[in-house]
Amino acid sequence: MRRRWVLTSLKGKSVLFSGKAQVPKLTTAYETVKVVTVVLEIDWDSEQIINADFSLYSSVSVEFLRNIVKGYNLKGGLDSLLAEVKSRFHAFSQGAVIQALQIAYERYRDFRTGQLLKSGRES
């Protein structure tokens, strides 16, 4: 009963999910930001990413990734978004960004299907 109430109460609202991943050691990126965190704000009804943030040292990188991610619709999965990031974002932290995006997406999918509610985990 609680699951249905929570999911129904989200109509017309957005949800926030995050993921994090370690940057490869022995890179400049690792010296400044050891862990990349990705935060996605997702419109519950349309499943579109409406805002995003990335814990990267460079504001140019953050804005660049935000422009790629914003507007992406998660209904079809994450593959085309990850391919876009791989083809356009060539920083040392690329792998960590991709992994953090995958984790945030998996947490969102788990919540959407009720898995997070059953386990009691927080986003």
Automatic annotation (TrEMBL):
It holds the Pfam family DUF3870. InterPro entries: DUF3870. Residues 18-109 form the DUF3870 domain. It comes from the Bacteria. This is DUF3870 domain-containing protein. It comes from Neomoorella glycerini.
